[in-house]
Known about the structure:
Order of helices and strands: HHHHHEHEHH
Protein name: Non-heme chloroperoxidase
Organism: Novosphingobium sediminis
Distance between the termini: 30 Å
Helix content: 55-70%
InterPro entries: AB_hydrolase, AB_hydrolase_fold
Amino acid sequence: MVKSANNPGGTPIEVFDGYRTALAANRAQFYLDVASGPFYGFNRPGAKVSEGLIRNWWRQGMMGGAKAHYDCIKVFSETDLSDDLKRIDVPVLVMHSEDDQVVPFGDSAPLAVKLLKQGSLKIYKGLPHGMFASHPEIINPDILAFLKA
Length: 149
């Protein structure tokens, strides 16, 4: 995800440094802030906020170790999975929203699906990064259809 020579359209490292700083300063607040905003798209005009989703994401975050969470930011942002994706030889469904505020669409899903031998890309409009939890009525039927196919 991070901007680099191999990924010129990526997210600047300063964004991930900001995540690390916020996590180290107040992990509990970090997990509330991310879930209340970009993760579920609750910062979008007209969004229907679900306190249950926010609190559940917070609960999951607080169950893990602070050091592991801190290190995870580096792993998810800086690990190049290109070679791994090229080795996968089974059908893979890549699901991504064009409005994902956490993982920018253009620098992720279309690039990943090109590396997969049997990749299928399902694009959603207006859904958040946490669309599996916030919009199961849309996501689950698409997963079931892929599995049945």
